[in-house]
Amino acid sequence: xxxxxxxxxxxxxxxxxxxxxxxxxxxxxxxxxxxxxxxxxxxxxxxxxxxxxxxxxxxxxxxxxxxxxxxxxxxxxxxxxxxxxxxxxxxxxxxxxxxxxxxxxxxxxxxxxxxxxxxxxxxxxxxxxxxxxxxxxxxxxxxxxxxxxxx
Amino acid sequence: xxxxxxxxxxxxxxxxxxxxxxxxxxxxxxxxxxxxxxxxxxxxxxxxxxxxxxxxxxxxxxxxxxxxxxxxxxxxxxxxxxxxxxxxxxxxxxxxxxxxxxxxxxxxxxxxxxxxxxxxxxxxxxxxxxxxxxxxxxxxxxxxxxxxxxxxxxxxxxxxxxxxxxxx
Lengths: 151, 168
Prior knowledge:
The structure holds two protein chains of two kinds.
Chain A: E1 9-15, E2 18-20, H1 22-33, E3 37-41, E4 47-48, E5 67-70, E6 73-82, E7 95-102, E8 108-113, E9 126-131, E10 142-147
Antiparallel strand pairs in A: 3-4, 3-5, 6-7, 6-9, 7-8, 9-10
Chain B: H1 4-8, E1 13-15, E2 18-24, H2 27-38, E3 42-46, E4 53-54, E5 70-74, E6 78-86, E7 99-106, E8 113-117, E9 130-135, E10 148-153
Antiparallel strand pairs in B: 3-4, 3-5, 6-7, 6-9, 7-8, 9-10
């Protein structure tokens, strides 16, 4: 090894964050652990999923009695293809990040769609949640969504 | 995933660790400095215009903006200019608290080097204290500041304030 070579070394930064989620997201995540997806009804009657603590239109508090059970099926409203997934991504092969409007909800939830090929993706496609066997109360309890006919 | 009591109750928190993997290159001048440490030498570079000696060298003078091409070897002894007694435990801490981190103005250098002060009680460390490096055994040295385990007092009389007042 030549003595004048410029050195290079890995420099790894780690922040071991843990954050509280509050009563509304907490209940949503608790539901995921039990294979249930719930949304919350806003004051204008729309069902929001993922649920939020405050009504986005008027700032009113939304409480646990406004929860609405939803199906684990839905419709892709928009998507982007991830051709070369990185280590941090939910899947280790090409997939789509998509907004999925679950049946019974009025808003889209961001998640991964495992469609195999980019050509299989389209706005309006029907998808179903693919659940992890070991769930811990996190959004990753849903591995991904798959086209409804495959799931 | 961690403890059963939490798993059974409502979810109150989530873990969101952040992990950033960088490749760091210190550049040519600092690479020479780091290789010097592996050999038990502390190298600096002198600015051809203002004459100041930088260690670790960065390859250019921060004041004059010119390349610092003259290499100088420093004896390693130095003076504590400022210091901090660390009493707070934190994630990833490797040294038992309390311990002292200090800026050491090495003899012959014009910029302080940040390192540990050991072999002395934390409350005895003070400005002007004369210190020397304690090196890792030659076989275990790496091109890193960790090749200096820490600095320890030499027992010499304190350096006069005027000798380091530009550095506090």
